[in-house]
Structure formats: structure tokens, C-alpha cells
Amino acid sequence: MERPWDLLPELLLDKLVRTILSTCPSLRLDFLSSFGSRIHSSAARVLFTCLEVEDDCRMFNCSARFQRSCVYPLLSNPSRYSHIVRSLIITNPIHIANQDQNSLDIQASVPLSADEISCLLRCCCNLEDFRWESSLRPPDGICELLSTLNLRLRRFHFNPCQLKSFSRRTVLVKWDAPSLALLSTLPITTLSLSGLSQAGTRAFARMLSDIREDSFLENLDIDLIWLDETICEAITEAGKKIRRLRISTNGTKFNDKGLISIMEACESMEELTLADVQGRISRFMWTKPATFPLALRCLRIHICETGPNHSWAVDHLDSLHAFPLEQLSEICISRRPGLPTIHNRTVIHEDRVDSVVTLKPLPATILERLRGCKRLTKLDCDFWSISISDLKVLLESCPKLENLKICLDAPFAKLLGLASTFATLSRLHTISVSINYEHAPGTPPPTALPDIAMSLSPGSEALILNRKSTLPQMDQMQTQTCLEKDTGDTSFPLLREVKRFARKLPKLELLEWYGKIGRGSWIVKRPIHNSKNSFNVSVNYIPPSISVETWEAIVREDQIQSFFSHNSSWIDKVRPGQDWTGEQAKLMAASLAEEKDEGVETTRRTDRTETRTRRVLSISTSSSSTSDINMPSTPNRNSVSPVDVYSPSTSPLESPTSSRYGYRDLGADSPSRAPDHKRSPSEPITTLQRFEQTRNDSGTTVTRRAKPGRGRGRGRGLRKVSLDEGQKRIVK
């Protein structure tokens, strides 16, 4: 007898099974063993294609918990399930209130050992994607295991979870990644790295230098503190095939020269994303590149709204008009709000706004350049506020626009009044706007929470929050007219006005008023058949709600925080097998030691050469001018890149102590004493400065008389220094 689900297409069946297992994870074993071969195959694809494993030894040691997890059938019958696994994710442990009753068992939990991780990797013979999201560092030899056991690996992600509730000490735990360079033996196409230490950054540069032009790298996502010119040069060497590049940094090493080298060398780049970039990018950055990638179609710049941001973090936007915006199909200059909190089922938004990113009007230079963006299909520009007149210019200048997201400096009713202007955009299907507080009086409706079951992965453990979430009931989804009568919200548009607006736009599907004071969204539906009657349109209102991505971040943080509150010592525990040992580890250590010795020897040789050169000064005394003496510049060792000495990309013949950029291009952590530095009143005067201050017009310098009883100059009186054209001779 044929069962009903046997008639369903495979994709639809998988979607149905995924929904059921997400809602009721306890049915996993039943779906794998009790409902026939078709349900078994679908459940296996849903459960094992993307496998999530907690970084907790109890997954293997506790028999009850082990049998409930997806790891149990994988290890028990690897020949049946191992070939299905394509993605493996190591996450932070999760505290489950109704299961982890034994506090001693919780305190006894330790991270997964290197042997247990090796066992998992050995079972996943077809693994293509490896993601590390645990807050603890992985075993130092994890990359050697991947390069040996998983030859089909294409994507590597190291993004340790960092909670906003973590202490500063916890967040600063970085990974040295000694075996990262071994990934160069794999055909990696996607690489995502964050939370690397200074040594880990050097390992990343070593990996890029090893692959060079043989790189398969297409997607690169980095969030590094030590992102300096040397790293950028290594990216250009291995970035000939990079199509999507995402850069994020909280450090101050990322400057114009590094970004320019990337823009000029990565010719295949199609998407560039700068997310919360602090660095030292100057105000005129976008006027400096000689060329831009011809294939570039997408530019995204995200700025954190809550900060903290350096005062210069958004200065480079002043020269954004010099960017070739006309060749782009997607432009995104957006602000990223802080993660909201939930208290008693009420969403509380973060109201704090950093002073650097306060809302300002759209610059006239940017508006003028947007006039020529005829290819633009998606515009996300809520970093600046846009007036009604500027919005009209944008709508008239971008005929291919499909998705529009802006911050409107006008009431919402003014937007609905532009229906005739919007009607010229035959492809526009999504409009999202946020409104300034001054243009939206009244109280917005409460923000709804999405269904928790939809945000969980069926391959993970059941997640239970201390706070429960519910979907808005149908009686809460009232019409706009009723809502306005109940709350007295004069900013809320009437339903008939929204319908009148929707009829003018032939492709409109979503009209959204988002933000902290958002009023919700309106879904526009039209008949399936081709009807020439534009009045046959239905509009459904949905109350404001947080996005699925935001909800997942809130849920994950709540779960992890719950675990740490019951097991605060877990973050300080040492992983069994953390150290990297073996033949490859010895070879890598020897290579690093050799590079370090070569760098130190090169530094000493360069210092001796520069010292001999500085002994003979060319000082002119033919004129009585009081101009400063032209002294040779002294390299500043503290301003040198932390990876210059040890990076293979640095030639042994190149001095690692010679900075290739001036003091103004350095970060905030550079020393205050540098070439062309003006001494502050509180800074002690140096010998050279004293020499310059006491030089007289005749070319003779008189030193100060030594005080009686101090120093070796006692009783010697004054000394005259004669300055000739080609040399300096001291006459005692």
C-alpha cells in the first residue's frame, strides 16, 4: 500500500521532516527506524547533512545524552551515515534545565578532547564545510587532522562565539593557530577567520604565502586585530580569484595602503564588505586607488550604531563619491543596531547611539553620484537620512531598482504620497523605511517574537529558554483602522492608503516600516493569473517583529549564558590534547625558529649599517639660516608590523625594521616619538633637540657648562664644536 508521503517530492518531504524534527527532537530515532525507507532517507538528510556537536565531553561520556544526540547513530553505524555529512559545526555547550539537574556532573564537564574530535572527523569522509564556533580554542593540530582526514574540505570557518556579557579577559582569548598553514594543501574556496592572536595572524599570512597563485580562494571573511599592510599584501598574492571579500577589524593597523593594494590587485572581486572597520582609513581614501576591480558589483559598509567607534571610523565616507558607484548593482551603507534584550516577553531595544554615527542628511556629493547609477538594483542606505526631494531624485535616476531600504526624514504619509513616482519603477518589489522620532509621534505597537522552533536546527539538542516566546495570535493582528482607534497613533497609516499606494506599483510585495519605532509591515498579494485590473489587490498587516537572525543570536546567547552561569570554570579548562605534537609540529616549529633567527640577524645587520651611515652628517653652514638640520630619519621599531619579522612574505634582504609608511599612517598605539614629531611640554628633551636649540648663527654650538661635582665634564669649561661642509669635527 502506497503511503501519502511517498507521493511528495523530495524537497517538500525534507522540508516537512525538518519542521517536525525541529518541533519535536525526540522523534529523531523513530524517523530513522520506524517509518519506512523514504522517511528514513529524508530524516538522514535532514539530521546529518549539517551536524552540530557541542564542545562538551558529556556528548561521549554520558550514555543517556550520547544516545539522544545525532553523534550516536553516526559513530554506531558510520558506513550508513558518514557519507551524508557535509558540514560539521562545533558549538558551545548548552545547559538544559530539565536534564542537567546534577550540579556535580555539570561542574565535571570538560571540552571535547583532541581524540574525540579526530574520531568525528574520521567518520565524516565527505566533509566539505568545517565550522568552529566554540568559545574555547580548538586543538592546535586541528588543521593537520583536516588536511589528512578530510581531503574534500572546501570551507573552513573559525568564528569563536563572543557574548556581549563576557568579561574583557574572556573575549581576549585568542588562538595561535600553529597548524593553519597546512590548510594550503586543501582546495579551500571559503575561509572565515576571527579571534586570531598575533601569532595566529602570522600563521594566516604564512598560509596565504604558501598557496599564492595556486589559490582556489573565492570567499574570504576576516576579523583580525593585526590586519596591517603585510597581511593585505599576502591577500593580494593569493587573491587573484577572490570574488567576495569581507573585512572587519577593531585594531588600528588597517590603513589606506593596505586597502588600496587589495582594490588594485584583486581583479576578480565582485563583492566588498567593510563591517565595523576601525583601522586608520583616511578621509581621502577612495580618491587614492589608481584602479578598481572591473567585476565589482556590490559594496557594503556596515557601521555599529552602539559603538564604541573611533572618531575617524567613518571619515572615509567623505570621499565615497570618488568610488565608481555607477558600475555597482548593490550599494549598502547601513548602521547596525545593538542586540535587543527581552524581559517578560517584551523586546527592549538599545537606545544608545555612538556620537560618531549620529544621523546626518545624505551628502550632496553622494546624491549626485547616485544619479548615474543606472544599473542599481538594491539600495540600502539608512546611515544617512533622506529627504522627500532627495528620494524623488533617487527614484527617477535608478530605473532598475528592485529593493529599497532607507531612513526617511519625513512622515510615513509623505512616502505614500509618492505613489506616482514609485510607479515608474516596474521592478521594485520591496520597500523598507525607518522614520525619525520627530516625524513619528505616538506609541508603536509591541514587537513580536518569532516561533522558537523555527530558529532551531534539527541536528542540535533541544533548546529551552528561561523565557518563553509566543507567536502573535490572530486577534492581535488587527487592521490599521482598529489599531489607530485603540492606541490613538496618528502616525499609523490607514489600510485604504496602503492599498492605494500598492495599486500603483505593479511588482510590490512588501512595504515595511522597521526600526525601534517601526509600525510593522504590509504584505501585498495579487491574483496568480495575469489580470489587467490593478485594483484587485489584497494587503495583510503584520505587527513589528525582530528578524530571524536577531532572534537566533538572542536565543544562542541566552543558552550559552545559562551554561556559563552553571559552569563558570568551563572557559578556563584546558582541552585534553590541546598541544600540537608529531612530525608536522616539529617541522613547523623548526621552520618558525629559522625564520625568526633570519629576521633577528637581518635586523642586527641593518642596524649596524644604519648606525655607520648616521655617523657622518651632511650639515651646511654656508648660510646663517635658522632652519632645522636635515637629519636622517630613524626607523621606529615599535611601528613595525608584528608579522614582518616572521612572515615568509618578507624578503631576508628587506629590513624588517624599516617602516614603509609615515607616522600619520600608523595606528593609535604607535609611539609618540617618531620622525617629524613635535615635543610636548611634558616630554623630556633629547640630546639631538638640545643640540638644535643651542646652535648659534655662526655655525658654532656651545654646550652648557657642566655643574660642579657632576659628570665627567667637571672643570673642563666650555667646548666649541666646529661644523664644516662635509664633516663634523669636535675641537676640545
UniProtKB/TrEMBL annotation:
Residues 704-719 have a biased composition (Basic residues). Residues 628-641, 683-703 have a biased composition (Polar residues). Residues 599-613, 721-732 have a biased composition (Basic and acidic residues). Residues 616-627, 647-659 have a biased composition (Low complexity). InterPro entries: LRR_dom_sf. Residues 591-732 are annotated as: Disordered. Gene3D superfamilies: Ribonuclease Inhibitor. This is RNI-like protein.
